[in-house]
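Exercise 7 asks you to align residues with tokens for two separate proteins.
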Amino acid sequence: MTTLHVAERSPETAVLVDGPAVAAVGPYEDLAAAHPDAKLRRWPGILTPGLLNPYGPELLEATYHPDPREAEGFGTEPIGGERALRIFRAEPARLGASARRGVQRMLAHGTVAVAGELRSRAVADAVRRSGLAVGQRPDRLPGPAALSPVPLILLPALVPGGPARFAVFDVTDRADLVRRGAGTCVATVIGGRLVYRGR
């Protein structure tokens, strides 16, 4: 079954998804007329190719993402630096679960690809299972490691036959996305599947 994704601020880049691949990209009206049986998903904001986060090792191997049930002891925000390393040294099994939670945070920020050399098998498995693409780091990194790096690194445009991997942000345009950041993500699609949907 095909699904047609369209965002209200970027109807000229609607995406028709067939399984894990992009079947077509173009104006919403044209795609809707050519594929009247496609399931329709309407989103606010703009539809983009999604983001590359270049800090895979820093955010998934050197940052602890607490379980919500650990809020009393660890809080709810990611923990970095020496404190995170102490947590992993004390209980190495925490690394895989932390990485899975970190991946979920990335998906909630429109991340569809990560970069950097992942050394931990548990972390690499979490990334692989999520469907996140793994790419090379850009020559120049955009500042300190963060879930929402500034400037944002958008991936190349979607093309028919390419992977159905993209994100939708509730912003007026790309300049607004840069100003407001990746926390404005309302949907992330990887392999044609909706892997994150904002509430």
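Second protein for Exercise 7:
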Amino acid sequence: MRITKKGSVIQLAFLPALFPVNCYLVEEEDGLTLIDAALPYSGKAILRAVGRLGKPIGRIVLTHAHEDHIGALDALKKELPDARVFISARDARLLAGDRSLEKNEPQTPVKGGVPKRNSVTTRPDVLLNDGDRIGSLLAVSAPGHTPGSMAFFDTRDRSLVAGDAFQTRGGVAVSGVMKPWFPFPALATWDKDSALASARRLLDLRPTLLAVGHGRMLEAPESAMRQAIAEAEDAWGGRSITKRGGGEHA
């Protein structure tokens, strides 16, 4: 595991040289917020990193319900029974293994590693909606990679933990844009139109730091995000912008 700290955000990267899977610790005055739970075997390493920081995890926040973002959730909840678990109201259904779509959603099958029905025993304590607050973090709806993907924007320093709405491994890309050196987020993306609209919304936040599920953190990311959006528009004919306006295993 590789640990990288930038401001109040600490990246814990598993398999960083091969198949990077990241989760994040965000420092708050009352302790730590863990964003995502990485891989099934990651729990002990996460707890060791927390032990070195000397602060408790009070909250476990999930960007979406793919298995490489919720892998150690049950193990962590067992060791941290008082930690509250947060996920979007929409992806709570995926967490329970329900892949069904709502009538108003694009009727493209949900892709990627969704847990089997009731295989995850942890139940969320809080179902998030767009605009909710978790400590210093603002919950930002960012559907596309999954129907209920969320990003989390730190209002103190404008750092953005974006889940798989973007990737930086293999090149900065909007979820759904294929990068040959790391194609997995694209292969697991549910709806490209939604993903592109969400990417533009996240750019509008003008983040100072972009932290994603796969790849290194990126400081001053606006230019790279804008270029990635332009690449997606070119690849997909700009359809999200023209149809919906601008302003989600791997």
